[in-house]
Hints:
Elements: H1 4-10, H2 15-32, H3 36-42, E1 50-55, H4 62-65, E2 73-78, H5 94-106, E3 110-116, H6 120-127, H7 139-145, H8 149-159, H9 164-182, H10 186-193, E4 198-205, E5 210-215, E6 220-223
Parallel strand pairs: 1-2, 1-3, 3-4
Antiparallel strand pairs: 4-5, 5-6
Bound molecules: zinc ion.
Amino acid sequence: MISAIDARMTQATSPQLDRLIAGYHRFREAAWNPRRERWESLRQSQSPEVMVIACSDSRVDPAQVFDVDPGEIFVVRNVAAMVPPFETTPGHHGVSAALEFAVQVLKVREIVVLGHGMCGGCKAALTRELHGTRPGEGGFIADWIALLDEAREPVAAKYGTTGREAERAMEHAGVRVSLANLRTFPCVREGEADGSITLRGAFFAISDGVLHLLDEADGSFAPVK
Ligand SMILES: [Zn+2]
């Protein structure tokens, strides 16, 4: 008799895994095999010059949007593309660890915060629909997107809390919050001051396929030419 765990382990495939493995074969065929020298040079180390902070949303993959190869961008993805402020409180600071590695070890030259259209995290920040839920039942998300609480107030006051206009304003505000929080990290602030690091805000929506860049002087997003 096999245990439930053994049964799961012997369950070789699923439609989902089949699709992933088919994609893996396409990647081997079309991208990996023809460029073995490139991958060989990446075997020992990586030296990306750009860090991208993006949302976990399945529709906005930075490597796809920017059409880059492995080794070119160092990516952190999370709910709503957030960067928390520099904090030394106990806890597991995943984004801060990645940021530290990118800046101090990889010495990236640019950090791009990539917001996106129809962001569920930003929407939840706006509606506060998960407010008061327990960890594991929405509470982790609620706590995470509370990073947007302050930025939410003027958005909600101007546009309300529902509808695309309000949601987009919240999505844009989220990018500005992450940029502001990046600047609370001493290594980022110093890098920006001595010109070794540039921060960028960007926004992409799969619906129109247009990348926008943030003009930090006036806070507006304009399509990239
Ligand atoms: Zn999102």
